[in-house]
Design a protein that fits this description.
- Helices cover 74% and strands 0% of the residues.
- The chain is an all-alpha fold.
- The chain is globular and about 80 Å long.
Length: 325
């Protein structure tokens, strides 16, 4: 187990380098350092001196990948890519283009994002699995048919409709929650319960339908028919066999949203004015702040790799046939 984890961590290093390199290349294919300087200086006509000064202050006055004027190893190290990328592996993200510390902003904004993402994820997982199990228990009845129609209907509605409709109904008409804003501590409940509810309603259609498909596939296998032939009740078959063996694909799907638990929901935080990491990323993209975008992409890649490792480890808990070498 330890050897497997160490091997996966070593594999993560070239992956993170590749992600960082790709992000860097894509960003500077769109904007050169001169374009970034003109944007942040905020005026239409800027002098070459002002552009050069801004680039020097923010570390963009060097070549991107290769410094032809340098000698030896400095040809690679004395570049923007090396200066901006190496420290990230030590989780030192530096300052944004407006001079604010990125690590401090991440530590502050991660809590509003987690206040929405964690309850939405855990409650959503429980609700989706429960709805799917109910439809499997009552399969080939009006309960299943009605449930499938309802889930397809929920899937067919845009997520923006749930956000705007929820804000109008619960915040404006019934005044049960603020339309936007956020406060720390226990006061956060007033601001996050509505986004969580909207997230649950908006996600139950696709989530429960997918889990129903997984459980239906398991319900048709030989071991389930054998369990029923031995006289086990339908409830025992459902929980002891179908649900247990369906956990492997469920864990695989759960890891895909693992980075979002930390990085937040871009659309939800923007509409509700919640100062989380999703909102932080949207603002950075709008202002073309490469330092913040690069840091958030790097963190997302790290979390995804960690999620994959945790998923592989959890496989051994739900499926004894899986052994990590």
């Amino acid at each position: 187990m330890i050897a497997y984890i160490l091997r996966r961590l070593l594999y993560a290093v070239p992956i993170l380098i590749g992600v960082n390199l790709l992000t860097f290349a894509l960003f500077f294919l769109v904007n050169t350092p001169d374009d970034m300087a003109r944007l942040h200086l905020g005026v239409k006509r800027v002098t070459p001196e002002a552009v050069a000064k801004w680039k020097a202050e923010h570390g963009y006055d060097k070549p991107l990948f290769l410094n032809a004027k340098a000698t030896g190893v400095a040809k690679v190290t004395d570049t923007i890519f090396f200066d901006k990328s190496l420290a990230m592996f030590a989780l030192r993200f530096g300052a944004s283009d407006d001079g604010r510390d990125i690590a401090s902003a991440i530590r502050t904004r991660m809590w509003p994002s987690l206040a929405i993402a964690l309850p939405t994820f855990t409650l959503g997982l429980a609700v989706n699995i429960s709805v799917a199990l109910i439809m499997i228990f009552f399969r080939r009845t009006y309960v299943e048919w009605t449930g499938v129609v309802a889930l397809v209907g929920l899937m067919s509605v845009s997520g923006l409709f749930y956000i705007i409709g929820g804000q109008y109904l619960f915040a404006k008409v019934w005044q049960l929650a603020p339309i936007s804003g956020y406060q720390g501590g226990f006061n956060a409940i007033r601001f996050v319960w509505l986004p969580i509810l909207i997230g649950l309603v908006g996600g139950v259609g696709a989530g429960a339908r997918w889990y129903r498909t997984l459980f239906l596939e398991e319900a048709g296998k030989d071991y389930v028919r054998t369990a029923r032939a031995k006289g086990l009740s339908e409830m025992a078959v459902l929980f002891r066999h179908i649900l247990k063996n369906g956990m492997v694909p469920i864990l695989t799907g759960a890891v895909a949203v693992f980075p979002l638990l930390f990085m937040g929901s871009l659309i939800m935080e923007s509409f509700f004015g919640i100062p989380g990491l999703g909102n932080y990323t949207i603002n950075a993209i709008s202002s073309q702040d490469f330092a913040i975008v690069r840091a958030m992409v790097f963190i997302g890649a790290v979390l995804y790799i960690v999620g994959l490792i945790l998923t592989d480890i959890s496989y051994t808990l739900v499926d004894p046939r899986v052994r990590l070498q």
